Amino acid sequence: KGQVNPHFLFNSLNSLSSLISDDPDKAEKFLDEMSKVYRYLLRTNEDGLTTLEAEIQFIHSYFHLLKTRYGDGLDLETIIDERYCCYQLPPLTLQMLVENAVKHNMILKDHPLKILIMTTNSGKLVVSNNLQRKDRMVSSNKVGLTNIVNKYRLMKQEEITVRDDGKEFAVVV
Question: Which residue of 48, 151, 153, 157 has the fewest CB atoms within a 10 Å radius of its CB?
Answer without folding.
Answer: 48
